[in-house]
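#lab-general

N.A. 3:47 PM
ok so I finally got the sequence cleaned up, no stray characters, all 114 residues accounted for. can someone with queue access submit it? mine expired

B.Y. 3:52 PM
send it over

N.A. 3:53 PM
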Amino acid sequence: MQARRQAAGGSAATPTQPEAFKTLSAAGAADNDMPTEDVPPATVASPLVRDAWLARIRTLATQGRAEEARSSLRVFVLRYPGYLLPIDLRILQDTTPDNPPADDPASDGDTPGP
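B.Y. 4:20 PM
back already:
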């Protein structure tokens, strides 16, 4: 076979297409491309993806990364405009360093200073 490829001007180092497929199959790469289950991957419209996103926002907030949490929440609201946010995330959405939550004593104008 190498003699035929060399006679036709081909390189002996370049395998023919069927040989390349045999090599790929022998390595197992082609066999691993097929999914093992008939379950499609989750999409952004999936409630699981939405809930995981909200959980991530909460995690960011509890880690003290409030600005990252608010940023992610803004993107979430753009992606799911009709979704009613849970109360804790609505508070986060309305809270900024310049606008603390209403129950925060620092936001009360009547509280005397030190």
